[in-house]
Structures are given as C-alpha cells and as structure tokens.
C-alpha cells in the first residue's frame, strides 16, 4: 500500500539534471525563494481576499506548524478535497513546507472514491469543506471513517468552515497558529527527487489510480508549460476548472503562474458570467477551459458587453476541441486559442502561440520538452509512419514510470523499456503536432467495423440543431455493438436518417452513422469535467 513508486533509471535522471530540467528544489523551498524575491507582489486572489507572496509563505509556515501539531509529518499522505477557493493553495503549500504529500481529490468525489483514495494512499488526514454545492462533506467524512474502522489509516479530518456536530474534526482556522513568517523548519528534509504529490488518473470508468509526482518532475512540468505560454510577472491566470485538476494546477496553471511571479485568480464556478466579471476586474490574461464549456463562453461573449480586452490566451484541453469551436472561440473572446493535450501521468502537448491558425484549429499541440519521447505504434507495438493512426506511447522527464501502489497494473501500463501506454489514438504530423483521434477503449466495434467516437462526435456538432454530442457503444446481438448518439439540441432533435445524411455529406462512411439518437438535456460529466461515457452507457441499457 505504501510501496515506493517506480522511478526513472539513473542514466535518465542524470540526463534530466544535466539538461536543467530537474533543479533539485522542493516546492516548500521554491515558495520561500519567491517570497524573498518579490514579497509584496499579489500571488493569490479569491473574491475580496488577497495574499501577497509574503502572505502565502507565512500561511504555509502556519499551516505546516498546525499539521505538525496533529502529528502529521514528512511523507504522510493527506487527501485534499476542496472546491475552488484559496484554502486549496494554502493547504497545498503548507503540506509541501511540512514535507507531507497532498493527494488531489475532486469536489465531486463521494464516499466510494474518497474511501478508495484513503485506503490506497494510506492517508492519515483529509481536508474538506463543510458544505459545497449543497453537499455535506462532513457527513461524507464521517461515513468514510466509519467504513474504514478503527484500524484504518485516517486519523484526522480538517474542515474549512464549520465542523458541525463532529467534535473530533479539526477547524481549519485552528491550524493557523502564530508562527512568524520565515520561522518554519523548511521542508523537514524533503528530497527533491522524492514524492511531492499524488494526482488521480483521469479515466472515465472505474476508481482512479494514484499518480506519483516528484518535486523535480512536477516543477519542470509547470515551468516548461509556463515558458511556452510566455508567462511572467504580468501574468494573471484565472483558475476556472477544479484546482485539483492537473490541467488547472500545472499546465502551466497555478504553479506555472506562481513560479513566473504572476497572480492566480480563483473562480468559484466556471460559468462565463462569473469568469467574465473576474476577467474585467482583475485584468486576467490567461485561462483554461474544457470543451463542454466552450459553447457557453462563446455564446455569452457574443451576447454580452463584457470588457475582455486583457485576455490574451485561452487554453482548451481535457478532451479534443472540435474544429468549428476552435474557429469561433478566439474571435468571440478576442484571444489566442491554445489547444492542450496531456495527462496527469505526464506528457503535455501545447500548440504554440506562433503556430499557424490551421495547426491551432486542427491539432492538439506538440510536446513541451525536447526530452519527451513519443512513439505512435500499431496493435503489435510496431511504430507507424507519420499520418497513420496508432496508440501513443511516451516517456520523459515528467512522465511517471509506475503508478502508486499498483505494480500489477504497471505490467500492463508500461513497456519493458519504460514507455507509458497512454491508450490514446493519435496521428503525428511531420511537425511533431499530434491529432487526437480517440481512445483505444473509446472505439465502437460494429460488426467488425471500427468507429472512433471522437470523429463522429465532432461531425455531429456541425449539424445546426446539435450543441453537444457523445457517442457510446451498446451491446447488440446482431452487430456485437451498436452506436448510440446522445445529443443536446437547441430545438427538435434530428432523426437517425437526417443525421446519417448529414454525416454522409460531411464525408463519413455510412457505417459510422449512429444507430440511435437520444436527446438529453445535458451530457453528464466526470469530476474533472470530461463527458461521463460510463453514465451514458448505463442509460443505454434496457431497464
């Protein structure tokens, strides 16, 4: 359960250090350096609350001291399940200052997921809100503790807000003692090449796996993205997606912005009305979205009278951005669109700010590091030529070499020479840019014909009545699998014949047309904002 994660071979580690990718600095020490360099610069904004870099450094000391008083120390794992509010960042750096390990949980996780994270990580504490989105997280934690029993690892629950009737829950404010700035005990000897945090795998089915990230590799992840995005002290990043999401936190996100000396503004929800008001007020220059948000932002920007002139770059990632939306988003917001394709396991691809428009519209970027190694292979593992669809394999200075506590799974997830099998189907262009075609498991096998769901979904969105679409496979006696398209429509949903004709006009083969069209008011999303195809598949099954 607490086994040491698989690490990079020594030869690769030495190469990454020599290249300057790994700098041998812990996150606790990085914050100290940032605060010393520009103490009065604003680091974090949450509503009317503001923290300078000196404030953030002092809070890290206070929270580390409070956690140490609970008996939490270096190497202990702590699940952080907080919504978008400054306390997520404060707690994260407090844990880093202590040398403890934050485990990023999503606000939407419930008893099954949180209990799983506690067990697999061996977490000694959880940090939660009192209530969020009309859900009582205190009751959730009471259930998790009862389920694990007296022999479970969880010893403490810290509540941001009112602990309610749970006398043994610790109020967050009780952690914040009177420790003076700069008087903390550093990082308790934390190793920069050691475990810094645990992220969650972003799959849409099953319980998440834990992804170990070190101080060295995760800092490089954020720094490499920040350099490509040209972040500096003038950058104002708006965190719209969940803070625990790797995309939001380090691509370049919160960490990349802070490491560049910029300002992080936290949005409590992803609605365009909330975000646009913050863009106006704080002069935001960069933000990140997932594709399901794009139509809403585009519509609000076109209909409203918001002042968005400060916004320079809008990143879109988490899933493939349909080309027609890539064309309309930038003009609607008056900003440069940047496509992002990556994974919490490591490899991040970005379109560049000076890429031709065609590459920005039609590709999901290229690797951020010169030491990212990418293979595109067929079903037998043999490399395929550029332009041919295959599975993406990767290894590099910030891509894991093994999951946390999952050695049996690692034998399937990695090649013998350390390449991570992403499960993503891509085409690589001669420029190195990748076009995401779908997932190996997101293919529908209809009578032997393979249908890439993402290809059909993108073309469904070109129908004038369809505003969102997801294609799933359902067991079928005749075909093995049949395809069901779930669509969100502005008016009446088109029938299967109309859709088939439309797709045929778009150049798709006849077998790719959905066998069934189901109109839904909205597409269900996973905790990280991806379309929940497992939930849709359950909706497709006969009662």
TrEMBL record:
Pfam families: AMP-binding (PF00501), AMP-binding_C (PF13193). Residues 32-404 form the AMP-dependent synthetase/ligase domain. It comes from the Bacteria. Residues 455-530 form the AMP-binding enzyme C-terminal domain. PROSITE patterns: AMP_BINDING. PANTHER family: LONG-CHAIN-FATTY-ACID--COA LIGASE (PTHR43767), NONRIBOSOMAL PEPTIDE SYNTHASE PES1 (EUROFUNG)-RELATED (PTHR43767:SF1). This is AMP-binding protein. It comes from Streptomyces halstedii.
């Amino acid at each position: 359960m607490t086994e040491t994660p698989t690490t990079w071979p020594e030869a690769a580690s030495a190469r990454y250090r020599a290249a300057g990718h790994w700098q041998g600095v812990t996150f606790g020490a990085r914050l100290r350096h940032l605060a010393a360099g520009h103490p009065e610069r604003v680091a974090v904004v949450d509503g009317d609350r503001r923290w300078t870099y000196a404030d953030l450094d002092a809070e890290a000391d206070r929270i580390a001291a409070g956690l140490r008083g609970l008996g939490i120390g270096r190497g202990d794992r702590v699940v952080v399940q907080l919504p978008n509010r400054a306390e997520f960042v404060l707690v994260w750096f407090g844990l880093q200052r202590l040398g403890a390990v934050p485990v990023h949980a999503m606000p939407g996780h419930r008893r099954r997921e949180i209990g799983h994270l506690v067990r697999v990580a061996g977490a000694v504490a959880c940090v939660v809100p009192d209530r969020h989105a009309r859900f009582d997280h205190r009751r959730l934690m009471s259930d998790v503790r009862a389920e694990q029993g007296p022999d479970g690892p969880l010893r403490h629950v810290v509540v941001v807000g009112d602990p309610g009737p749970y006398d043994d829950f610790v109020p967050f404010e009780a952690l914040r003692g009177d420790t003076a700035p700069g008087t903390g005990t550093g990082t308790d000897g934390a190793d920069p090449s050691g475990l810094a945090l645990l992220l969650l795998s972003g799959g849409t089915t099953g319980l998440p796996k834990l992804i170990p990230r070190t101080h060295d590799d995760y800092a490089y992840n954020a720094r490499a993205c920040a350099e490509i995005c040209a972040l500096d002290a003038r950058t104002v990043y708006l965190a719209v997606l969940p803070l625990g999401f790797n995309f939001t936190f380090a691509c370049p996100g919160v960490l990349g912005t802070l490491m560049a000396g910029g300002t992080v503004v936290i949005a409590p929800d992803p609605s365009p009305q909330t975000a646009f008001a913050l863009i106006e007020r704080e002069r935001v220059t960069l933000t990140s979205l997932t594709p399901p948000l794009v139509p809403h932002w585009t519509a609000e920007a076109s209909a409203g009278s918001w002042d968005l002139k400060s916004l320079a770059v809008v990143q879109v990632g988490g899933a493939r951005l349909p080309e027609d939306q890539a064309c309309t988003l930038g003009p609607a917001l008056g900003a440069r669109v940047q496509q992002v394709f990556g994974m919490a396991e490591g490899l991040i691809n970005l379109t560049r700010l000076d890429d031709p428009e065609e590459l920005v519209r039609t590709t999901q970027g290229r690797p951020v590091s010169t030491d990212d190694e990418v293979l595109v292979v067929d079903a037998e593992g043999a490399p395929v030529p550029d332009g041919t669809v295959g599975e993406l394999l990767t290894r590099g200075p910030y891509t894991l070499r093994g999951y946390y506590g999952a050695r049996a799974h690692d034998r399937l997830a990695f090649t013998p020479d350390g390449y991570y099998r992403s499960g993503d189907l891509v085409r690589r262009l001669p420029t190195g840019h990748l076009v995401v075609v779908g997932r190996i498991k997101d293919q529908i096998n209809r009578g032997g014909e393979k249908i890439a769901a993402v290809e059909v979904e993108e073309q469904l969105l070109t129908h004038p009545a369809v505003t969102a679409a997801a294609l799933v496979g359902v067991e079928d006696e005749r075909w093995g699998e049949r395809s069901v398209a779930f669509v969100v429509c502005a008016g009446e949903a088109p029938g299967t014949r109309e859709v088939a004709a439309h797709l045929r006009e778009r150049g798709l083969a006849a077998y790719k047309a959905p066998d069934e069209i189901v109109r839904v008011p909205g597409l269900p999303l996973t905790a990280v904002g991806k379309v929940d195809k497992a939930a849709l598949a359950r909706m497709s099954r006969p009662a």
